[in-house]
Amino acid sequence: MNSIRKFLFKELDICGQHLSISRPWQQMIESRGYSKVVQQLFGELSALAIILANGMKHKGKITMQLQGGGAISLLLVEVSDDLKIRGMVKVSGVIDEHDNFGRILGKGKIVATLYNAQTKRNFQSLVSINSKGLIQTFEDYFSQSDQLASKIWILSNQDNLSAMLVQKMPDSKQNSQQDWDRILLLANTITHAELCELPAQSLLHKLFHEEVVTLFEKDTIEYECQQDREKFEKIIFNLGEKDARDLLKEHGEIAIHNEICNAHLFFDESDLDKIFSN
Known about the structure:
About 35% of the residues lie in helices and about 30% in strands. By secondary structure, the chain is an alpha+beta fold. The strands form three sheets. Strands 7-6-3-4-5-11 form a six-stranded mixed β-sheet, with helices on one face. A five-stranded antiparallel β-sheet has the order 8-9-2-1-10, sandwiched between helices. A two-stranded antiparallel sheet has the order 12-13. A hairpin with a 4-residue loop joins strand 6 and strand 7. Helix 8 packs across helix 9. The protein starts with a strand and ends with a helix.
């Protein structure tokens, strides 16, 4: 179930998305040692970034980044237009499961950057953080920036990241508050087990079996974290040849940690000869 699927209550002008990923999520958190609280927040931002990236009309990517003064100093997720995802969390303090949201993330905003590969331009927007959490933050964001009433459910564990979004469509002529309240009432009966375990079709039938729901084809999500070796070669070049060769002589190799991919890149004498050959 490594996919995201859109759905539509056509008679009500209410739409939604269902997300369920296993292997890509496992790769995102593998060997990271994130606590349960950190993992849930990372999962929430990852799910929200995927939802925003789903249906991009041009080549590019969405980057969601939060740099705060709390116990989590950096929360970063990138999703490309073809739904390839990567991300990381930096924790600079001890986090207790009972800590409030403000202490964990501190004060600040989430920077959402949309990169258009065709025009090679970035468009940024700031998302004000709601002290109640990331989910409430983005429900507010959709409501205030797009004038779209929205409700989001997100849950993660070691094996799976799942989410569901329901949202009023813009410029609806037939959507009533009563319809919206009914859909929310039904959607709020969802359990953690149902959100994590049921595929989209089964979940929507269980929640909305008396409604007319159109479920669209799935889009596949993959984890991809390119090593971008050239970027790290530039770091070594900027270090200077003498310092680089002294470092190599001292340690036998130069190892650089690629934090976002949680991997090490290693450079030997032949690599340095290539870097400093020009």
